[in-house]
Amino acid sequence: MDTNHDWLEKKGIQVFRTDYSIPSILSILNNNGATTVISFINLTDTKYIDIHSAILTACQQSSTCKRIIPSEWIGNIEAFPLKPNFYATTREPFRQILRAQDTVEWTLFNIGWLADFFLPSSKTYMKPIPNEFPIDPNGWAACVRGTGDEEQTWTCGRDVGKAVVELCKAKQWEQITYVAAEWSHPLPRTEKSWQDVQRVLEAHADDKVLSEELELAQVEEMMLMSCLACPEEKTLRQRKEYFAHVQFRSLEKLLQSAKNVDFV
After folding, report:
1. Who contacts 82 (Cβ-Cβ below 8 Å, separation ≥6)?
2. Tens of pLDDT along 92-145?
3. Any idea which of 74-78, 175-179, 244-248, 258-262 has the lowest mean pLDDT?
4. What is the chain's Cα-based Rg?
5. How are beta strands 105-106 and 108-110 bridged, if at all?
6. Cis peptide leading into residue 134 (ω within 30°)
7. Phi/psi at 8 (nearest 5 deg)?
8. Where are the alpha helices (DSSP H) in the chain?
9. I need a surface site. Which of 120, 187, 194, 206 has the fewest CB within 10 A?
10. pLDDT tens by residue, 179-209
11. ∠ Cα 23 28 33 (to 5°)
12. Residue 167 DSSP SS3
């Protein structure tokens, strides 16, 4: 049994299977009158380029679908376009493909951290990532990289969904879009230094396969460089322009909501 498929159908969500070939994707788009493709396909190798290129080509050939939001969902890609490092070999090449064409409108949507990771697993559908996210609410632990004062932003997952819906209503998109509910404040902490992270990056610099340890170190490097903090001025301008109807919840309000519902 396909449990994911079953779960989605119980929620009243239509599911269409694809092998990510151009004809398969094109058929789904045209048969359903789709207007926008929103991708959450998070791959760390060049399959990311192959799949997204097929989606783009299908949009170019589609009679209805002329917009795409590829899978980015990271932080300040204008200041740090190649972080984490595997984005240099996956996202950046596809960004260049997008820029080279003008028949499909696109935007790179970025959110910083998902605030849902502050919640225990009993209160959220998000799979915990205790090694990456600095707070482990299930293990009641925290790991602070660097000084702990490096700026981060976070946004509630449901608010991200609402923002994407609002953006789809906009007549025209910017090539890069940010949403963020809050910017970070220093917390009491244990510490993990830049040197600790750098040692792992250097030890695996020539690795051909992205191991869990190296991927974690790349994410930690982003935190140390404030890559996951969406640029405040542009984010707030876009919030006013595109997302005036979305009430982005602060972390405090998210935690308050968790007291009253089974899942946030």
Report:
1. 88, 92
2. 999 999 999 999 999 999 999 999 999 999 989 899 998 899 889 999 888 878
3. 258-262
4. 19
5. unpaired
6. no
7. -65, -40
8. 3-10, 22-31, 47-61, 91-99, 157-169, 194-203, 212-224, 232-242, 251-258
9. 206
10. 999 998 766 656 778 999 999 999 999 998 9
11. 125
12. helix
Token readout for 188 is 């009491």
pTM above 0.85, yes or no: no
Per-residue pLDDT tens digits for 8-66:
888 888 999 999 999 999 999 999 999 999 999 999 999 999 999 999 999 999 999 99
Please check whether residue 157 is in contact with residue 181, taking contact to mean a CB–CB distance below 8 angstroms.
no
Angle between helices 232-242 and 157-169 (to 10 degrees): 60
The count of other CB atoms within 10 Å of the CB of residue 116 is 24
Extract the tokens encoding 38: 């929103």
Q: Is 100 helix (H, G, I), strand (E, B) or coil?
A: coil
Q: In what order do the strands lie in the sheet with 113-114?
A: 113-114, 153-155, 182-183
SS (H, E, C) 57-94: HHHHHCCCCCEEECCCCCCCCCCCCCCCHHHHCCHHHH
Phi, psi of 106 (to 5 degrees): -150, 160
Confidence of residue 1 (pLDDT cuts 50, 70, 90): very low
